Each structure stands twice: as structure tokens, then as C-alpha cells.
## 1
Amino acid sequence: MKYKAVLFDLDGTLLDYKAAQLEAVDHSIRLFDLVNSPEVQSYESRGTPSPDSQKMKDAFLKAEVHEDPSIFLNRYFNSLSTQGMVIKGAKEVIASLYKKVKLAVVSNGPGEVQNPRLNTAGLSHFFEHRFYSKDLGIAKPDPAILQMATRDLGVTAEETLFIGDSTTSDQPAAAAAGVDFFLFKSDFNDSKLQKLLI
């Protein structure tokens, strides 16, 4: 393989984020829409807007959720942290790469949620290196989080492959960082991906 490091996005690439979210909100479509609102997604990845901000309160009012945002979000993230549904084929691909190349997770999320999910999924032992946007204060599409990952792994951008599912955060971050990117679309048996990993 031409790469010395492979970076993985977590949600939608290794773990089933939609299924995890639905479980965390007891399959309520109204609450699912709320936790996918720009405000809650930004809070999850960057820590802003804060739960007590007017922006967050307005998002809750718009969703007709009459609950204190801080209490709701704390409960939601606690529940989300217990969800570790692995996308089919992910574990096999990671196991095949383990100890052959350097592996890392680069996720727009908080470590306090993502680390337990990796544990539940049985994937944590593969990833000594983890880069979480909320903890670092840098979220994709900002390339700085990928640049930090390559620097910490001791590899160059040219020696790195980033696998992610988002054309709005993962792909532009990789392009700006000069890292090769593979757009994951749900299948680890994709022949193009398999060729990259040989």
C-alpha cells in the first residue's frame, strides 16, 4: 500500500450515526430532527452555541421541544454514548490494516461521547490516536484537524489517506490539507476502496 497512515471519520463511516441517534431519542422523528439541527450539530462538534444561548432556545422552540436544552442535551449525549453499531465490513477492514499502517479516528464530536461508542463497538483497541473536534476546538472542514493528525502520527499529507462520508466536512478538509480522500458510501467492499488499501 502506498499509504503509511489511514484516518477514518467515525459517524457514517465506521459507526452508524443515524441508527445511534434514533436509539438515543427513542425513535422520535421530531427529536431526531432537533438533534440534527444546525444548532445541536454545531454544539456537538464545536461546543457552540451553548445550551443556554438564545440560538439554542430558539431551535428548541422551533422543534416544539419544551424542555430545558441543557437537561435534554445532557440526556441525549449520555444515551448516544452507549450506541456503538458498527457499519458492515468496517471491523474487518480495520483489522486488516492494524499494525500495517498507522490508524486514527478524526471525528466532529466530543471524546466523552465517541470513546465509549468505540468501546461498545469493539474498535477502541485499533485506535491509539483519536482526534475529536469538540475537544480540540477544530472541526472539519477546517483542515487543521487533519494537519494535527498527520503531524502527531509522524507522516506527511502525501502518505495519508482519509476515509469519510461527508462532502461538506470530510472531503473539503482533506482537499485543503493535501490528504488523499475516499468518499465512503456505505460499502467497505467497494472495489475502488479495496484497491487503495492493498
Note: The radius of gyration is 17 Å.
## 2
Amino acid sequence: MENNLCIAGFGGQGVMTFGKLLATAVCDNTDYNVTFFPSYGAEQRGGTANCYLIISDREIGTPMSDILDDLVVLNQPSYDKFVSKLKMGGRLFVNSSIVKPTSDRSDIQIISVPATDIVVGMGNIKVLNIFMLGVYIGYTEIVPSESIWKSIMEKMAGKPSLVELNKNAFEQGIELGRSQK
């Protein structure tokens, strides 16, 4: 098993945190190998940000691939830039609140989630990444959700006031991801 994933959006949307949490959970709680390869635009907040992960049950020869199994896009420029790298049969996770797929690709699975609208309804846009991580884990089950939550709790050790909000976002994302299967 080898899964090539790209997570892409604007700086400030939590793209790197999404990737780091997933990579940490894989590394700490499974027998899989994982690589995490971040890429930032010229600016951090508001500029482009993306990261690549490879999760594999064997040695990984390169930190990133030009052919993606999964793509999570949080904004339109990221969709426009990366959708062509998604392999036939690949899975596209789209924040449909602000991303409008323009490709006529019928050879991919599209998991369309109005993520921005949902997290604004929760009261905090800053949990967009945790919500989408939940959607991704709920749909793919690539690692147990408990492993991801453990990584989230470790990251939030110094911010106990944010735990409940993030837990709610993560759990709602998981449920929505599972319902999209």
C-alpha cells in the first residue's frame, strides 16, 4: 500500500498543521512509513501553501510524487494548480464553499464538502483544517481516528480552551466523511 496525498490552500488555512498531524499520527501509531514535504509561497498568511505526504507499508524512495492518489483543496487556486496531478480513480476532497471544480474529469471521485460554511456555523473558521482532516480520515480510514485525535491533543496541550471546539470539528468531519462513501 502506498498513498500519495497533497493538501493545498492559502497560508493561514492550517494546511501544514493538517499534514503534520496526519504524518505524526501515522509515524507514532502505525507500522507505516511516512514522508511530509511542505511548500510555502512567497508570503505565509494569504500566500499559497501545500504539503505532500506519502504513507506506505514499504520504504519510500522520494518525499513527494507528481501523481496523487488523494488531493485536499481548500481554495480555488489550489484546485486549479493540482487537479491535473490526481491519478485516474483518485479522490478529490473539495471545500465546496469556495472551490468550484472547473475540470470535466469524470475519472476521479469528488468528495465535495461545504467546509467553510460548516465551520463558520460552528463559530470559528480556524478549525477548517481539523474539520477537513476529519472528513479525510472518515472517508479514507487510512489511519484510526483515535490516532489522529491523540496527535491533535498533543498539539493543543498548551491551549485547553480550544480542545472542545476542535474535537467537535474533527468529529463532525469524520461523520461527514463517512457519510460521503
Note: The domain at 2-179 is CATH 3.40.920.10 (Pyruvate-ferredoxin Oxidoreductase; domain 3).
## 3
Amino acid sequence: MTSADSTRRVLITGAGGDVATAVSPGLAEHYALTLTDADPEVLAEGVERLDVRDADAVAVACEGIDAIVHLAGAASPESDWESVLDLNIVGTRGVLEGAQRAGVRRVVLASSNHVTGGYDRDGEWPIDARQPVRPDSLYGVSKAFGEALSRFYADFHGLSVIALRIGWVTGDIGAVGDEEIMSALWLSERDATEVIRCAIEAPVHFGIYYAVSDNPNRRWDLTSTMLDLGYRPKDSWYAAAGLREDVRTGGHPVRGNWPRD
């Protein structure tokens, strides 16, 4: 695949968000992208309007689309119930239903480490995707719902879905500060692009996978991500920051009010 004309057509929701902004340029090297968002301010930059809560609208937007990368929704662990219900639960259902109607081959769903954030509070690491969900917030609950709904569509409607429990995507190394949990969560823009590309292409019908960079202090098992999807993280927060890892037996404790400020 050397040009957009010879590649898959990929629709991205939430195109104005941080993750989409970080990965779209790299994905555009491999795919013909359709960028969508519901924010009027984003639409002025050449992004098509799409309300993901409207399954009919999603189905129309997905005509001829090979894969959806669903990044739209409430993104903060401090989001209230009304927000996650509307944007993450109803919105995710709209995307899955619309994709299924349109015959989309694959949906890559942005899930979150907050689905199992409760393990962080007790320092119960490492964590892999086979462990029971243990949300740390209503946001985490909504992402767990999205994973369960995805499994339903995969098992009973034949829609292929890969859910990525994405860490913290940022190109600003200084933003991590001295929070050990944040450096463990870091997913570089380059690695984020690669893990999404792997999720689009992998010969897997359904799966839930962690997505962080090769941080030596990470608490989330990447084994299945590497074996099933072929993901090979290239970046590490400590290397990117030019620092040596502060090693502590058992890991650094998580602050008591995590994941809230």
C-alpha cells in the first residue's frame, strides 16, 4: 500500500480530540481517512459532522468504509453520569450499530485503562485483559460497557471489534511531571499510531488489549497485544525524557485520590 488510492478507507470519530490529532497524520500515510466530529469548531478545519449517537447517520457515513477508529466520547475519569451515558454508552452503541448495518469490516474501539483502574488503588499489578473489570470511575464503567457491547456485536452480529485500553497519549514529555503513574501510562504518538494500525489489520475477530509504550514501569501486560496484533512499541517514557528509572520494589504507590485530581 503506497498511496491513499490503494489503501483501506478508514473513518475516525472524535477527530478533534487529543488522540485523533496525534494519530491521524501517521494513519494518513497508510489509509484514506475520513475525519468526523460533532464539534462545530472542528468542522471548520475540513472535518465532516457526525453525531455518533445516531446509528442511521453512522451507517450513511460508513458507506464504502473498511474500518472505523472510534475515538469520540467523554474522555475524563471525572466525567459525570449524564456525559458518559450520552457520549460513551449511547454513542458507542450508535457506532457499532451503524457499522454493522453498513457492513464495515472492523471497528477499533478506544477503551481505557480505567476499566481496571481499581486494581491500581491496591497495587495489584501486573494487570492483563483477562482479569475481571474493576472500574475506578463512571468513565471506566462506561468503557467497560463499551467492551461488553462490542463483544455482543462480535458474537451475535458478526462485527469484528478490537478494543484498545489506551494509556495517556501526549507528545509533551514535560506534562508527565513527577507522577510515576503517568509515566507508566504513557503512550507515545508514534506507538499510538502503530497500535491502532495493528488493530485495523490484525486477523483477529474480537479482542481487548492494553496499549501503552515500552515503559519499564508499566503495570499492564502487553503480551497479547504483541502476539495477537503484532504491536512492537518503540518508545519508552524514561528514554524520551532522558531520565533513569526510579526503581522501587513493588512499584510506587498510587495517590489516594487517583484517578481524580
Note: The chain has one domain: 4-241.
